[in-house]
Design a protein that fits this description.
The chain contains 26 helices and nine strands. The protein is of the alpha/beta class.
């Protein structure tokens, strides 16, 4: 195989080019100001043609052939215990995804936004992916050749020209890199008409774990799924909330995978490899914004590798380029006036009993007492190891890396605690995932320095402590989707039993295939949601659907808007109170409302179907007789 190398400056040039492109930021180059769009072209030229015939060429060059050959060797040498570790990582999320695959669409919690945006971006890439694919294909042949700099810069010219000609509009609320990675699955969901297109995003999040352990780590870290991952798996990936988020539509999972790559990179044995750490964090920030909070601390940790002005220069350059695409994204977001704002809470509110109590309460809801004990064990192990490095081994550089990442983790958690716009969600586990990932990511280099028997013993202990709440989470997931309402700490998601009820009622011999009109009764806040047409597209195709709010006086009657009887059907999904928001008073009010509604349906509809489960009404379907 021919040896192909790439210099660090060429790598940074390609990183900046492709992240700007695949995150969709290039569509806004001419919106966000001349400094940004001319800066894109100028910086691309400087990085592409920066002289590489400098001393210490081994520091500047990266041998791609060597990297991929090493990755192939590692994968071919996988043993049974390596596959067991990988299975242990994938099993909880895999099981949870499997048993919830037919779940209803979860309203609230941004699921509707992620579904809609994924639809739009998938359509966009079907049209415009051709603008960069030829450049990618030609790259392998150009790298390491005389004209590689011209090949890289041609990509900048191509993207620059495309932004002038095409310039479509991207929503700027979130970085769009994750949507690009999930677009192929969303395309399949549309082609094969999946009942729940949201499963494309959920499957993509689960597959990010598979990509991490069998592609990213072997290729870039030369690492196999061995015992060094056992603590991370036992305390983090057995945690019920983490399992849920890695099988949801949220953007965090892929962000966390990139963060884990960045943290582990800092603790590799080879001196040169730390250069990739900032790049991984830069990628994480283009998936979910808070990833950028770790970049300063990764830079500080990387300083422990610096031994010359030349290496300091390239560290500064790498960190700057790694964070620059996020700066472009932020400028785009500001230009589009996309909220949300951020401001520091007044001191009196920060230390108020209510604020502190809410944070602790949600922490306890997420981890439970057993998980808190496991959390404490891991923190003690990390802190003792830092003390061991300082006082026993006297390895100050390594200990500083641990300390800086711990500080970055704390910053990620404190950011949402002090942020006034996040006051309502203080302690919300999804906002703290970045901090938790940074903390537990440190267990990988820790385990590499512990005896195997210690890792196995503590791993089993941690698994038993942190994983016990997962059993009840699996039990709830086996029930119909509405019994998982409010599992995201009080307010989200909300599952409406619509698909389930229609599938069941269509098996009823009284149901007529001639029914064309269908009214769906939902709470008033959901009547304007575009997610109804996206998530329930098969129902929209089959029936003439009207969305009615609960304030409509005829919601429980087989009547049209004029009060006239017509041959139509209506479905009234119940608002089940389950999960964390198990408010008995509200449950009784909802139950009485549904029982009263049932009487009205019986009095006005010739046919009535009630979906009962575990003593609760999931939904009521009423319809007129056959023609």
């Amino acid at each position: 195989m021919k040896i192909r190398t790439i210099t660090i400056t060429q790598l940074l040039a390609l990183f900046f080019l492709y992240t700007i492109f695949f995150s969709g930021i290039w569509t806004a180059l001419f919106k966000i100001g001349w400094i940004y769009y001319l800066g894109f072209l100028i910086l691309g030229g400087v990085l592409s043609f920066l002289p590489t015939n400098l001393p210490t060429k081994d520091f500047l060059q990266i041998n791609l052939t060597e990297i991929f050959l090493e990755a192939k060797k590692n994968l071919q040498s996988l043993r049974v215990k390596d596959f067991l570790i990988a299975a242990l990582l994938l099993l909880p999320c895999g099981i949870y995804l499997f048993i919830t695959w037919d779940q209803e669409f979860p309203f609230s919690g941004d699921h509707d936004f992620h579904l809609w945006k994924s639809f739009e971006i998938t359509k966009f890439w079907i049209k415009y992916i051709w603008t960069i694919v030829p450049h990618l294909i030609l790259g392998y042949w150009f790298l390491g050749k005389k004209y590689s700099s011209w090949w890289i810069f041609s990509g900048y010219l191509l993207v620059f020209a495309a932004s002038l000609i095409l310039a479509p509009t991207f929503m700027a609320r979130y970085p769009a890199l994750s949507y690009f990675f999930s677009s192929h699955l969303m395309f399949l969901a549309q082609i094969f008409n999946w009942d729940s297109p949201l499963n494309a995003l959920r499957l993509n999040n689960f597959l990010s774990l598979l990509v991490w352990i069998f592609l990213l780590r072997p290729i870039f870290l030369k690492a196999k799924p061995n015992l060094s991952l056992l603590f991370l798996i036992s305390i983090f990936f057995m945690q019920k909330d983490v399992v849920y988020y890695f099988t949801s539509s949220y953007l965090e999972p892929l962000c966390l995978v990139f963060v884990l790559m960045g943290i582990e990179t800092l603790f590799l044995e080879k001196y040169q490899d730390y250069r990739w750490a900032a790049i991984w964090i830069g990628l994480a920030a283009l998936v979910k914004e808070q990833g950028i909070l770790l970049l300063p601390f990764v830079f500080l940790a990387s300083l422990t590798f610096v031994r010359s002005l030349r290496s300091l220069f390239f560290l500064l350059l790498t960190t700057f380029i790694s964070g620059l695409p996020f700066l472009y994204y932020y400028a785009f977001r500001k230009h589009e006036n996309v909220g949300r704002s951020s401001y520091v809470l007044p001191y009196a509110q920060l230390i108020s009993k209510e604020h502190i109590h809410e944070f602790i309460k949600r922490f306890q809801l997420q981890w439970h007492l057993s998980g808190e004990i496991a959390f404490l064990i891991v923190l003690i192990c990390i802190l003792f190891f830092i003390l061991y490095l300082i006082f026993k081994v006297k390895n100050y550089r390594l200990s500083l890396r641990f300390i800086f990442i711990l500080l970055g983790a704390l910053t990620g958690i404190l950011f949402f605690y002090v942020d006034g716009a996040s006051k309502f969600w203080t302690g919300y586990p999804r906002f703290n995932l970045l901090g938790y990932t940074a903390i537990f990511g440190l267990t990988i280099p820790l385990c590499k320095r512990l005896p195997n028997w210690t890792i196995i013993f503590l791993g089993i202990l941690l698994m038993g402590l942190s994983g016990s709440p997962l059993i009840s989470a699996f039990a709830d997931a086996l029930k119909p989707s509405p019994f998982r309402n409010y599992i995201e700490h009080y307010e989200a998601p909300k599952f409406l039993s619509i698909n389930r009820s229609l599938k069941l009622v269509q098996k009823d011999p009284r149901w007529s295939t001639e029914i064309k009109n269908l009214r769906i009764v939902v709470k008033l806040g959901l009547t304007t949601s575009t997610a109804l047409s996206d998530a329930y597209h098969n129902i929209i195709k089959r029936y003439n659907v009207t969305i009615v709010g609960e304030g409509d006086p005829s919601i429980c009657l087989c009547l049209n808007k004029n009060g006239e009887v017509e041959k139509d059907a209506l479905i009234i999904p119940a608002h089940i109170f389950a999960g964390l928001n198990n408010n008995w008073e509200d449950k009784e009010i909802e139950r009485k409302k549904m029982l009263n509604c049932l009487e009205s349906v019986k009095s006005s509809c010739e046919n009535v179907f009630v979906d009962w489960y575990d003593g609760e009404i999931l939904s009521i379907v009423g319809w007129r007789g056959k023609s």
